Amino acid sequence: MDEARQVVSAKFCDHKLIPGDTSEAFETCHNRASGRSLSLNFLRYSSEVAIDPGELTDFYLVQIPLRGRAVVKTGAHEVEASNQTASILNPTEATRMTWQAGCEKLLVQIDRGALHDLAETLTGHHLPHALVFNPEMQLQTAALKRWVDQVWACVQAAQNGAAFGNSAYRFQSVIEEDLMTSLLQSQPNAITHFLKDRPLALPARAVRSATEYIRANLSDPITMRDIAGQANCSVRSLQTGFQSSLGCTPKQYLNRQRLKLAHYLLQTAPPGTLVSTVAYDTGFAHLGRFSIAYKEAYGQSPSLSLLH
User: Fold this and answer.
1) Strand order from edge to edge, sheet including 77-81
2) What CATH class does 172-306 carry?
3) I need a labelling partner for 269 at 20 to 30 A (CA). Which of 84, 102, 110, 254 fits?
């Protein structure tokens, strides 16, 4: 038990770990894939345990149950976690949890500073206090279903060695920004009201500047903040401007342009080139999703295009 606590503490924070039934054999399993500002984790305890980390201080922790149940008391809230309800722990609120025997969770650990910087960028405001989420995540909502799908795509990319871990993937920062942005937009939090405000209209020249920047940097790991900086506007103004002028989000436009580049590269690639190489080089870490999007755009699989 003490060894398990030390191993998990080294990756998260110091905490108390108290067994519910000392007569049962105790086993734990923890797997981790680290990125730059967030990590993906699998954690399982074989028997019931009470976990008391207090305040996390430096990070947020999304806990998605895969098996079993848990009761999470954080701040003034109590969340009964199950396959329909996840939880997110805020760094400034004391937490105590009880995981039932055999409980397994997918954990997304997010650096507090990185998420705070992104929140300030999205709102255009200086935020003097730590961001706070509603800790109860209803996974049946459409927005959170999409976010969890993103998380699983990241897990698969990590398992394939395409991102996270030791992959040194050039587009790692883009993946993480997308995941954090979607979380801020999907789960109620202290800036949700800011994100609902309609930003000022974006001049056509700013949209043109953004699209020119995207097309000139398709092979580079550019983020939404990079594009907004080039257009001299906020990320939210950029999103609204693209929707008004082009009928799509900046991310959708970027992905379409990258698919066009991938289409060209596949048709002109030298013998021996792999589809996965082209996908990763054009910013698609998840090969399955790349293949689906490519076929929707060009009516055939990437491997057929590669055969010319």
Assistant:
1) 16-19, 49-54, 95-99, 70-74, 77-81
2) mainly alpha
3) 254
Read off the pLDDT of residues 130-151 as tens digits, 9 standing for 90 and up. Answer: 999 999 999 999 999 999 999 9
pLDDT in tens, 218-227: 989 999 999 9
CB 300: neighbour CB atoms within 10 A? 11
Dig out the tokens for 119 from the structure. Answer: 């929140």
Which string of b and e fits 57-78 if b means at least 16 CB within 10 Å? eebbbbbbbeebbbebbbeeee
Question: Could you say which architecture CATH assigns to the domain 2-139?
Answer: Sandwich (2.60)
Which amino acid is residue 87, in one-letter code?
Answer: S
* C-alpha–C-alpha distance, residues 117 and 38, integer Å: 14
CATH 1.10.10.60 segments of the chain: 172-306
Alpha-carbon distance of 174 to 230, in angstroms, equals 16
List strand residue ranges (DSSP E) for 100-221, in order.
104-111, 136-138
